[in-house]
Amino acid sequence: MAYLIENRLNGSDFVSELMKTTNEIFTPYFGENLNFRATTSFQESKDTFFIELSMPGFSKKEVDLQVKDDILTLKAERKDRAGDSIKVSKSYRLPRESEQSELNASLDKGILFIEIPKTKKASSIPIEID
């Protein structure tokens, strides 16, 4: 306990060092897949749906994104330093009020950004009440 308190007081990051040491020990046996998590975030604006996926270490050549029958499918595969395969496969049902043919995607700094415009029908129309 004194070691933990002393290191925090000296400004070193004990948890970070512990994770680094743990990774150094287990990566040769389990590969880098041990820490991989493809987290997903969904957001919506007035005229667009947004999906953000964490894809650390993937290049755009390793990511396949397709839409068929209102289903957005993501498949990605890459090799880690040990030569083991890291695979990601996710599918999302898209809202009916989305313009799937106008979907835009970009991969920047390990984050896959997907924008799906809403159809004109999906935009809210204010209705005056008499």
Task: Write up what this structure looks like.
The protein is of the alpha+beta class. It has two domains: 1-30, no CATH class; 36-121, Immunoglobulin-like (Sandwich), CATH 2.60.40. 19% of the residues lie in helices and 37% in strands. The protein contains two helices and seven strands; from the N terminus they run H-H-E-E-E-E-E-E-E. It has helices at 2-9, 14-30; strands at residues 40-44, 48-54, 63-68, 71-79, 85-93, 104-108, 111-117. The strands form two sheets. The protein has a four-stranded antiparallel sheet with strand order 1-2-7-6, with no helix packed on it. A three-stranded antiparallel sheet has the order 3-4-5, with no helix packed on it. The longest helix is centred in the N-terminal third of the chain and has 17 residues, at 14-30. The protein is elongated and about 70 Å long. Residues 1-12 have low confidence and may be disordered.
Class of secondary structure makeup = alpha+beta
Estimate the strand proportion.
Answer: 35-45%
Supply the CATH architecture of the largest domain.
Sandwich
Strand order of the largest sheet: 1-2-7-6
The biggest beta sheet reads: 4 strands, antiparallel
Number of spatially distinct domains: 2
User: Which percent range fits the helix content?
Assistant: 10-25%
Question: Segments where pLDDT lies below 50 for 5+ residues?
Answer: 1-12
Classify the fold: give the CATH topology of the largest domain.
Immunoglobulin-like
How many beta-strand segments?
A: 7
Return the CATH class of the largest domain: Mainly Beta
Count of discrete alpha- or pi-helical segments spanning 4 or more residues? 2
Reading the helices and strands in chain order gives: HHEEEEEEE
